[in-house]
Amino acid sequence: MSTPSPQGIQDTQGIQGIQGTEDATDAGPRVPAGAPVRARGAVRAGWGRVRSLLPVRADLAAALRAPRRDLTAGLTVAVVALPLALGFGVSSGLGAEAGLATAVVAGALAALFGGSNLQVSGPTGAMTVVLVPIVAQHGPGGVLTVGLLAGLIVVGLALARAGRYMTYIPASVVEGFTLGIALVIGLQQLPHALGVPEPEGERVPVVAWRAVEAFVRAPNWTAAALAAGVAAVMLVGARVRPAVPFSIVAVVAATAVAQVLHLDAAAPIGDLPAGLPAPSLGFLDLSAVGSLLAPAVAVAALAALESLLSAQVADGMTVGQRHDPDRELFGQGLANVVAPMFGGVPATGAIARTAVNVRSGASSRLAALTHAAVLAVIVFAAAPLVSRIPLAALAGVLLATAVRMVEVGSLRAMARATRSDGAVLVLTALATLALDLVYAVIIGLVVAGALALRAVAAQARMDQVDFRADLPGEHSEEEHALLAEHIVAYRIDGPLFFAVAHRFLLELSEVADVRVVILRLSRVTTMDATGALVLKDAVEKLHRRGIAVMVSGIRPGQRRVLDSVGALDPVRSEGREYATTPEAIAGARSHLRRAGLLPAA
């Protein structure tokens, strides 16, 4: 086999190059050489991100590790979840069947695709609070559309890896909106608990007050007694025998009493479909999507927030369990996309049901899947029996749930921590009651952030310091006295940002008649553009007074901010930026000697 000559290789390469040029000319505009590679890399990275959110083999291994314990826990949670699903479905305005559909469909999908092994999802009181005004304004179809849009938004948050940012919500805000939710849930139950028609009104406190007025005019003691009895059994039973699901016991007993005694004043749930409806997008009205985007964002924010908080609670109740926040968002988003197709309301992770799941010994997502499967069996096999449950009994379940949501010990500890925490807690709770949950969280975050900034700003200091220890070389007391007469040194400790910068400018502007000011910046922890601009303004004002400014100890991370606004230009132009304080003092001595204020060395 002969080896081609170098000349032959060059000729071949030249011919190929000419052909390649002709081909490129014939094909049209030239594509950059690296474009296909970058495109393939982007596709590969995108698929890798999606793949990281999908179920993995370890999920199946965990489910097979202790299946009997998980099946038992799932059955227990289903018993607890049944009356809650029915109650929250009724409270949302879409009916008990919507609550059951949500618990089955969203519960199964969130368990399968979510990021927590212990999370139980379904309709919740917090979501019901947000849905009630949406139902009043846009009707059932609008709620289903909002749920689908919110699911897509939450999936987008998962793909953007936004889960980790939910951890920045202060505990005072969480406790405040939990208290507010409990108050709203309790007030929402008054019409059914008192056995009166649902009054008109948008604000929960107003509706509750009108329900009380209606009860005073025409009292329904049967409904009130059933609601009070169910709530009392749940609250007292939970203290005596915490392991017994007294919610289902109380509901069964109330239903039996109503049927045996023919208590017509206790209105039942009514007919329920014997099974889930076929999936459909018939509710989707594209022309209304624009007006529903704002409610969808609110629902998505709540779904993400409550689900991640619930997963975090579950982690804290166990050892060795840690949820994946982005995958949890993906699972909740997918659940909310699909649930409306079956007539379900938006769902989130349910803290109370998740806590029951953990306490019942669950160790994998098989328990949550079992909970959804048991509820599906109830939907298909026991719909006629469930339809006879009195609405007052479900109202009693939710009244007891609202009471148990309030952790008095946590509220007391938060109020005692700091005045700021107490103020944020109360403000968030009142905003939840007066406005809605999303606005309440936003208000709580803004106020908490402002108070935190004030606390950080209070730690920032600018002190005049003695520079005797930093004087280089030998110096006499007389020389030190002369230096102290003409030089003043300031050390800035802490952050130099917008909340404190103007206070520092005022202090620097009031410097007495000296010839040199040394600014020691080595202890500045952070600096923003406002701080840099204020520093520049201070330097220029001192220069106009004939005072030389020396700067020392600038950190590398702060140099970029200072350079971006030109804060160091007046100092650098005269060579007065130094790495250390002794060097700055040496430069100040030289400046004073040139000015004839110190004797020559």
From TrEMBL:
Domain of life of the organism encoding this protein: Bacteria
Keyword list, A-Z: Membrane, Transmembrane, Transmembrane helix
Keyword NADP (UniProt): no
A biological-process GO annotation: transmembrane transport
GO CC, alphabetical: membrane
Domain named STAS: residues: 477-588
InterPro entries per the UniProt record, alphabetical: SLC26A/SulP_dom, SLC26A/SulP_fam, STAS_dom, STAS_dom_sf
Record-linked PROSITE patterns: STAS
Subcellular location: Membrane
Mode of membrane association: Multi-pass membrane protein
Keyword Transmembrane helix (UniProt): yes
Residues spanning the membrane: 71-88, 94-113, 142-160, 167-187, 218-236, 243-261, 281-305, 366-385, 391-411, 423-453
PANTHER family, alphabetized: SULFATE TRANSPORTER
Protein name: C4-dicarboxylic acid transporter DauA
Organism of this sequence: Streptomyces fradiae ATCC 10745 = DSM 40063
Lineage: Bacteria, Bacillati, Actinomycetota, Actinomycetes, Kitasatosporales
